[in-house]
Specification:
It is a single chain. With 259 residues, the protein is α/β, with parallel strands linked by helices. It folds into two domains: 4-201, 2-enoyl-CoA Hydratase, Chain A, domain 1 (Alpha-Beta Complex), CATH 3.90.226.10; 205-251, Orthogonal Bundle (Lyase 2-enoyl-coa Hydratase, Chain  A, domain 2). It contains eleven helices and nine strands. A six-stranded mixed β-sheet has the order 1-2-3-4-6-9, with helices on both faces. Strands 5-7-8 form a three-stranded mixed β-sheet.
Length: 259
Amino acid sequence: MSAELQASRQDATLILTISNPGARNALHPDMYAAAIETLSTAERDDSIRAVVLTGADDIFCAGGNLNRLLENRSRDKAVQAESIDNLHGWIEAIRDCPKPVIAAVENTAAGAGFSLALACDMIVAGASAKFVMAYVKVGLTPDGGASWFLSQALPRQLATEILIEGKPISAERLHQVGIVNRVVPDGSVLDAALGWADQLAQLSPNSVERIKSLTNEAQRNSLGQHFESEKRNFVESLHHRDGLEGITAFLEKRKPHYK
């Protein structure tokens, strides 16, 4: 079987599964374009309320394939640069997708696999899951936005430790510092992520989309700029059909039903 990104549905949730049998779900360039196209389709599909990114066979993703990287040393530098651009396109597609994206991490998220998990909006991990940025162990430097995500989320000293030492970090430690949202028993990660996605599907799609956008904007806006963005989104949400349904349902003491 070849390396591929598999797409399936469970109710209102799109499930993307990284699959590369025999290679611990190592990434392959063919996955990048498939991911970008699938997330673009999900963006336009109102029946999809959330996305779960996971790995086949109880392992999330081992990152890049070192044999392929070694082969690329004999090719023009532009070959590897293009591959990284495409990986970054996948990362941007996760960030830009208006639907919440949950990473379901069993076993290992290494290298660019860790980057993919960091790009997601929330992370559910197994109790014994390990996260590792081991680029330094093979004389390389991070890609997939890893150094940016960790530097945004953590104190500089801790981010530097994770990136320079390249040692595995437990799901529990990342939970303690706020990168992993939920730690669940091994083997139950996908079910936990899907259950969370089901809960998110009951919320206002308009509100969820706008809140995700606001959290992304907050990383580059000044406070004054963000005040304006919050004002615009609040007013537009109030006059959206979801605003009417949410307020009316609350006042009528019933569960809202969003379309």
